[in-house]
Design goal:
The chain is α/β, with parallel strands linked by helices and 207 residues long. The chain has helices at 16-25, 53-62, 67-75, 85-89, 194-205; strands spanning 5-9, 29-33, 44-47, 80-83, 93-94, 107-111, 124-129, 131-132, 147-152, 154-158, 164-169, 173-180, 183-186. Helices cover 22% and strands 30% of the residues. The strands form 3 sheets. It has an 8-stranded mixed sheet.
Length: 207
């Protein structure tokens, strides 16, 4: 297991403690940060989040995690994992709000919409199977099913399906996880996904 630090961005919009505890459980060095100056030049970054899209962007900017910060992250090839709202904030925009996203990923966030006869509830909540997409280091192609815990009303719609590393199905397939170079996103909550979340975090911190 790598000893490089894992910096968990805390903007007050997620249960940071559960993410930190899982990373520590698998031997990672978790550091909770609400200031970009506390993030070192090495290591990895996790961006968790729950709640409203506009509030998420407001919180990131308020704490100094602005475009300049993310430009440096990209330049240094720092591995980044956005979780739930954190994944969505990495995209360009969301139907949930009017704020511009970080724009690190060419994708937009759309609301789940179903015909009444489909009888599907929104938000999509609970355990669901995630099928691996293109070859990637986080969700490998295994013989056994990989199940993760979801709670979300909006889904990421990328311009290019080739960045999708995990697909799930809820009234149709949707992007459950993506990777673009060093930037990863997971719509599900690995910190709530027991053995499957442990395995995913283990792969991420070993990058």
């Amino acid at each position: 297991m790598t000893n490089s630090p894992v910096y968990i961005i805390d903007t007050g919009l997620a249960n940071i403690g559960s993410v930190a505890r899982m990373i520590q459980k698998i031997g990672g060095a978790a550091h909770i940060c609400n200031n970009p100056n506390a993030i070192g030049s090495n290591g990895k970054i996790v961006l968790p989040g729950v709640g409203h899209y506009d509030h998420g962007m407001e919180a990131l900017n308020k704490h100094g995690f602005d475009a300049e910060f993310w430009d440096e992250v990209i330049k240094r090839d720092v591995p980044v994992l956005g979780i739930c709202l954190g994944m969505q904030l990495l995209c360009r925009s969301s139907e949930e709000g009017t704020s511009h996203g970080l724009g690190l990923i060419k994708a937009d966030v759309k609301k789940f919409r179903f015909a009444q006869e489909e009888n599907l509830k929104v938000p999509h909540m609970g355990w669901n199977i995630v099928e691996p997409g293109v070859e990637n280091p986080l969700i490998p192609n295994l013989e056994t099913e990989q199940r993760f815990y979801f709670v979300h009303t909006y889904k990421v719609v990328p311009d290019d399906d080739n960045i999708v590393i995990g697909w799930a199905n809820y009234g149709g397939v949707f992007c459950a996880a993506f990777q673009q170079k060093n930037i990863f996103g997971a719509q599900f909550h690995p910190e709530k996904s027991h053995q499957f979340g442990i395995e995913l975090f283990s792969r991420f911190i070993a990058l």
